[in-house]
# Entry
Amino acid sequence: MTAETFFYGDYQHPPGEVAFASIIRNIIYSQTQRANLLREAWSMKGKIVKQGATSQSQIFSALASTRQVYSVNGYSAGLLDMNGAQTPFFLDTTQAIGGVIVTSPISHGDLSGSETATFLHYTFGLMGDTFKSSISDLLSYTERVTFADNRGGPLQIGRVPIFGNPIIQSVSSASFYYATQSGSASSRDPNIQAEAMIWPDSLIGEDGSYQVTPVSAVMERGVPISYSISWSYRFRSIVPFVGSPHNRG
# Structure
């Protein structure tokens, strides 16, 4: 029987050398308050122990190897029990977004006294993010409807003659009703679609009255974690518009 063993990738620390200082697991919520990511961060503490006339050189050699191990991201990490079996304390780099990363390389606190003579304390940190949301969850959504018209009333325009005072001239006894529907949304779905038009039969039909803008994905360590799209539609009608923005999320 031996003490528990910590590993990172193919490297195994001597039994009992490394222990957990803390494990912090946080849920990262989206704008729509969906549980989007699970972030698990490990703070680790270790102690290199060597004996004999060359103990210090052995410590420094072990330190160099340990620093090299934790200079590279992308390996699974965890704790093996006394029989060498994997415990529940495991960060799977194949499931982590962009792989497990080293958040804090090998570091040290107080190095005074006997530190480095026969022993050396050190710390390091690891982290992995995994998805909690489904591909169909809306991570963000907003839509607005803007009414910009004269409410169908008579139209007037201001004129400034070369001579004399400015005048206000009535040019029509009635006017159009106008509305603009605009918004944006994001999700993990790379095929996210723009919102449907509220008044499709009243689309103005002029260039620019229908605008849909896909936005580049938000990336985390080379992995897309959300896709976004925005839209804007301009409508015109001879009767008042009746409707309101969609509510999603």
About this structure: Residues 214 and 229 are 4 Å apart (CA to CA). The chain has two domains: 5-131, 138-237.
